[in-house]
Amino acid sequence: MGGMFFWFRVKGVTDAYHIVTQRALEKGVSIPTLCSSQCPLNRVCVIQVILVSGNHFTASSKGQPSPYIRASFSLVSETTMDAAFQILAEAIREELAEKK
């Protein structure tokens, strides 16, 4: 399975930055600068789907909160995609539960 980008909005979240940079990363889904053996968690990211929060892509409001996430992937198996999005779903559920 391959693709370039998949964009989605996280309902109930005003800023997806923490989901991407903390929760998903801790679970093994990567962000671009950490997808290597140089990962500060001292491990290679286990799922090769890269997540980036939407605030990095706004032209007029850089750094503003965004509920969007962009998933980047290429030539990964369906099993890997399923695993990555299950991890992401868990990270989103945790974020939503913490906000209640």
Order of helices and strands: EHEEEH
Q: Radius of gyration, rounded?
A: 13 Å
CATH class: Alpha Beta
For the record, give the distance between the C-alpha atoms at the N and C termini, rounded to a whole number.
36 Å
Task: Please state the structural category.
Answer: alpha+beta
CATH topology: Aspartate Aminotransferase, domain 1
Number of DSSP helices?
2
Q: Please state roughly what percent of the residues sit in beta strands, choosing from under 5%, 5-15%, 15-25%, 25-35%, 35-45% or over 45%.
A: 15-25%
Question: What is the topology, as strand order, of the major beta sheet?
Answer: 1-4-3-2
Instruction: Compute the average pLDDT.
Output: 76
Low-confidence stretches: 33-46
Largest sheet: 4 strands, mixed
What would you call the shape?
globular
| CATH homologous superfamily designation | Aspartate Aminotransferase, domain 1
How many β strands by DSSP? 4
The assigned CATH architecture is Alpha-Beta Complex
Helicity, in percent? 25-40%
Number of domains: 1
